[in-house]
Amino acid sequence: MIELMVDRVQVSLMSQHRLVVLRDVDEERYLPIWIGQFESEAITFELQGIERERPLTHDLLKSTIEEMGGRVNYVYINKLRREVYFALINITLPDREIDIDARPSDAIALAVRLNAKIFVDSEIMDYAGIVPERNVEAEILGLPDDMYEPSEFAEQVDESKLSAFADFVDTLNLEDLEDD
Length: 180
What we know:
Oligomer: single chain
Strand order of the largest sheet: 3-2-1-7-4-5-6
Order of helices and strands: EEEHHEEEHEHHH
Radius of gyration: 25 Å
């Protein structure tokens, strides 16, 4: 099992799709999981400390577990079938320990409310985890990634590379575009 933490929740600008991005606590690897609108809001509200007038479903589940004398030990993303993730919520009750099947989004929303650990099966992380590309700019400069910070001018355009466009613009005759 690999321990994860919630890195961020992203919302697509082009659609209503949402993504929770989990980060390996020991390595720079990420596990993105598509989630629903309500689950993304439940996770985001809790991470940002936003209080609601009335409890959300995940708050109700948290209260129910606590009132029964239970404790959520961890959440475990344990299966991936046809690009659909499955999870378990491990709960200790006064008389036994149980695993409850859950959607990862619901399990994560509960975990952030209870500060419970989040784990993923190592085979799932090997298959679906993402490792960011190395920092090529730092490599060219011979610096370790953690020492390199691009300057505010790093993204300025090299105008010499635009000379072909400048030549083209200079040859345009805008008088031809005028209406008679």
